[in-house]
């Protein structure tokens, strides 16, 4: 679960974050519907409803993550972007002058990664700052 990842990261980095004036930026991305067949078959109203629901889920996730941060004494700001996660994250790194990007690894497997691509792998190679990838604990 993503929020579990935030807790693990905060436990390991809270001393560093508390001893500096850094702010933790939380950025989930809302992926736009990009399946051409779905775009042809679905009405614009349906696509808008799905995207609006995704935004609501992102806001709820951000609020929960922010409360976890506050519980650890870490100042956090929330940002929500719409689009391809790989590009949105790398763009936000540059726009916000992020000094360390921390990502979770979904563990999607080699076959899915070959077709879908890996967000963490893309960011490791393209983000303009150091990247820490946190693997899911077993």
TrEMBL record:
Residues 51-135 form the UspA domain. CDD domains: USP_At3g01520-like. Pfam families: Usp. InterPro entries: Rossmann-like_a/b/a_fold (IPR014729), Universal_stress_UspA (IPR006015), UspA (IPR006016). It comes from the Eukaryota. PANTHER family: ADENINE NUCLEOTIDE ALPHA HYDROLASES-LIKE SUPERFAMILY PROTEIN (PTHR31964), USPA DOMAIN-CONTAINING PROTEIN (PTHR31964:SF55). This is UspA domain-containing protein. It comes from Vitis rotundifolia.
């Amino acid at each position: 679960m993503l929020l579990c990842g935030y807790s693990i990261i905060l436990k390991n980095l809270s001393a560093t974050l508390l001893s500096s004036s850094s702010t933790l930026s939380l950025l989930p991305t809302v992926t736009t519907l990009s399946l051409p067949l779905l775009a042809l078959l679905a009405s614009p109203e349906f696509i808008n409803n799905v995207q609006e629901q995704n935004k609501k889920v992102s806001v709820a996730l951000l609020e929960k993550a922010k409360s976890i941060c506050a519980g650890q004494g870490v100042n956090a700001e929330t940002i929500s972007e719409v689009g391809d996660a790989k590009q949105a994250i790398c763009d936000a790194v540059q726009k916000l002058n992020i000094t360390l990007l921390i990502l979770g690894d979904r563990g999607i497997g080699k076959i899915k990664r070959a077709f879908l691509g890996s967000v963490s792998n893309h960011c490791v190679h393209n983000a303009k700052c150091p990247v820490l990838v946190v693997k899911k604990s077993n």
